[in-house]
Amino acid sequence: MAQAQVQRNEGQWRRICAVSDLVAQSGVVAWVAGEQVALFYLPEQSPPIYAVANRDPQSGANVIGRGIVGLLKGELVVAAPLYKQHFSLVTGQCVEDPSQALATWAVRLNGEEVEISD
User: Fold this and answer.
1) Percent of the chain as helix, strand, coil, to the nearest 5
2) Is there a domain that residue 99 lies in?
3) Please, which residues have CB within 8 angstroms of residue 84's CB and are 6 or more apart in sequence?
4) Enclosing domain of residue 85
5) Among 32, 96, 104, 107, whose Cα sits 20 to 30 Å from the Cα of 41?
6) Residue 80 lies in a domain
């Protein structure tokens, strides 16, 4: 049974951290409305910040924020640290296994503040 891709609709924007709290080309994890959200800061991209669920659907571990970011066939992805499957930072979909997906959130910069839509 395929797992549905979960895209959060834009709702109310809330501040979750400052840009200075992020690490370029890497992930950090924030607690948002009872969930761990992995934020990836890629300053050379547009948009520069991506937000996906931190929980790896294959292992169940909260480790996605520690994954390695890169390009796979022209798509921005994060490689899950344990089993190395790749997830799109834009859609959350797993490249190797369409039955796996990460929830995604709309995220934006508002001056020097990072905001997420819940």
Assistant:
1) 5, 45, 45
2) yes
3) none
4) 13-117
5) 96
6) yes
Strands 13-18 and 86-88: unpaired
Q: Enter the tokens of residue 12.
A: 């109310």
Per-residue pLDDT of the chain (118 residues; tens, 9 = 90+): 333 344 545 579 999 999 999 999 999 999 999 999 999 999 999 999 999 999 999 999 999 999 999 999 999 999 999 999 999 999 999 999 999 999 999 999 999 999 999 7
Q: How many domains does the chain have?
A: 1
Q: What is the CATH number of the domain that holds 22?
A: 2.102.10.10
Smallest CA-to-CA distance from 71 within 109, 40, 116 is with: 40
Residue length, the chain?
118
